[in-house]
């Protein structure tokens, strides 16, 4: 059985460099070590884990199944150590707390920049880390303790989280200037379904909302292209690859200035609520509570 005390961080770092380089020689050059010293550290790590981590090939190295597994664990360990070092450095220079926030794309693009800017201007000794994730991932992170506060869409089940209304937004249909719908001020989703769509990747709450709305109409959502960001959707629409549905606040002024049209979506479900979720508002740490109260303050 492996004794965790025999694992050292430097050996894990060197192992990752070798794994990324695919060669002891290249890794030795990158780490400014002699080839023999680096090889010895990896051999010691293989002895400690009682596993062969690499297959030595004539033209390089290949990870064994054990080596592939160790890559994931080593990265997780080193990421945790780096976060620990960052947190301790913050405390050393006077930072009083760290709040972890996960939010979906709609919240980050439309609302979080201004809200966090105002908060951090008033609370310079609090550090906030913000991660952009899909709504389902946000909920899981708050429930699992990876995040203190989450912001997510209203069509994703919040589970046991306490949720509070953060903001409301409105969906629009974005089309090229020469599109058949471009002259309309408002459009029903049923009419938009006649055309090809550019959408977000699978797992996004917005894509799920559109798919559910199409299914309710007994129609098919014709996804021609799927991308990972609102900005990419806009670029694909500019290129004439389809139309898209976006939050109104996510459509940048320069996009409209370039000629694209944002048309109000008439369906009731196009008005959305973004929820702010926590495991328990009553037990939030003081710094997280300050941010929580700020985000829920009337505007």
TrEMBL record:
<dbReference type="InterPro" id="IPR036388">
    <property type="entry name" value="WH-like_DNA-bd_sf"/>
</dbReference>
<dbReference type="GO" id="GO:0003700">
    <property type="term" value="F:DNA-binding transcription factor activity"/>
</dbReference>
<protein>
    <submittedName>
        <fullName>LysR family transcriptional regulator</fullName>
    </submittedName>
</protein>
<dbReference type="GO" id="GO:0003677">
    <property type="term" value="F:DNA binding"/>
</dbReference>
<keyword id="KW-0238">DNA-binding</keyword>
<dbReference type="InterPro" id="IPR000847">
    <property type="entry name" value="LysR_HTH_N"/>
</dbReference>
<dbReference type="InterPro" id="IPR005119">
    <property type="entry name" value="LysR_subst-bd"/>
</dbReference>
<dbReference type="InterPro" id="IPR050950">
    <property type="entry name" value="HTH-type_LysR_regulators"/>
</dbReference>
<dbReference type="InterPro" id="IPR036390">
    <property type="entry name" value="WH_DNA-bd_sf"/>
</dbReference>
<dbReference type="Pfam" id="PF03466">
    <property type="entry name" value="LysR_substrate"/>
</dbReference>
<keyword id="KW-0804">Transcription</keyword>
<comment type="similarity">
    <text>Belongs to the LysR transcriptional regulatory family.</text>
</comment>
<dbReference type="Pfam" id="PF00126">
    <property type="entry name" value="HTH_1"/>
</dbReference>
<feature type="domain" description="HTH lysR-type">
    <location>
        <begin position="7"/>
        <end position="64"/>
    </location>
</feature>
<dbReference type="GO" id="GO:0005829">
    <property type="term" value="C:cytosol"/>
</dbReference>
<keyword id="KW-0805">Transcription regulation</keyword>
